Amino acid sequence: MKRWLPLLAMALIMLSACGSAPASAPAAATDSPGGAAASGDVDTSKLSKELFFYNWSDYIDPSILADFEQEYGVKVTLDTYDANEDMIAKVRAGNSGYDIVVPSDYAVTTMAAEGLIISLDKSLLTNLSHMSPDLLNKYFDEGNVYSIPYMYGISGIAYNQKNFPDGVDSWSALFDPAKIAAYSGKFSMLDDERESPGAALKLLGKSLNDTEPADLKAAEDLLIAQKPFLAAYNSSDVNRKLASEEYVIAHAWSGQAIQAHNGLGDEFSGNPDILFTMPKEGGMIWMDNLAILKDSPNAYTAHVFINFLMRPDIAARNTEYIGYLSPNKDAVDLLSQDIKDLYAQGFAPDAEMIKRLEWAERNEKTTAFTDVWTVVKGE
Ligand code: N2P
Which candidate, 158, 162, 163, places its Cα nearest to that of 174? Predict the structure, then answer.
């Protein structure tokens, strides 16, 4: 188990070797001798009273917002979403009132191309030096011009080991009518136009970025055949429904599975029978990133908040709470043995698993996923 961290580091280096520019030197700390001592280099006179954070659900330890308020006197209002497309639609409409959003990799590309997010002021992001170089400069935002890694994770299958004593090893556990008939109404798929079509494409032995019409049609057919057996498309409380045993198996994000296993703060208690696996056909790896909106009224304060989230003690506490993976190397050093053990049990990729993982890309053809999803959801 102690071998997990070096393996993961090695795997990430392998991943970054294909497709990423070399990491740039971390931003130097700003030199401001006259800066307010209590809060590092922060000019407290420039802070707003409030900050509006639009983040995925169950994706931050609430005590961190309280700590930021206590330290800087800024009240953070949190609203949540469960899909990149929902968040982007709200922001695109204008005047969302939000300062900070958390797009995944391919969604950073979309938002930057549409001018929805600003170039970050790196002189305010002194804690960039704590980030893992292999997780900066990724294909979706080379140079991290628009975004800073928040958390990363993988999309696989969470299941209750009481119902699956021999484990689960294939996406067929969620698609094969001969299997899913036995747990009809007790399983869910992620409510996400890239995730669920992506899982169907993996079962077909294809790339989750495949936009060949015949392959997309085959994926669509699999999803339509699955639909009568599903309890729901669910990205929002699959963690709770696995923990309560309303579901016996589900397509889930790795952190949702850890939350189902461990519980989530005061929100709900965990169920140690919930385990997580990456099917042999492979699946998605992704990273969610902090970005500041073009129409953010509080951009200075938003930078201060992002820098706060990169403080290793804060990032480590957040990671322990939500169970995803931290792109902050100095936070990883602070993690408990308990969470490292879960990572080693399959809730995080090791060098072997990483070979089966793919990142979602955005290009002129990937709008086809919206069409597939519209058809499937409309059935
Ligand atoms: C947390 C959402 C994880 C984000 N509920 C998946 N990209």
Answer: 158
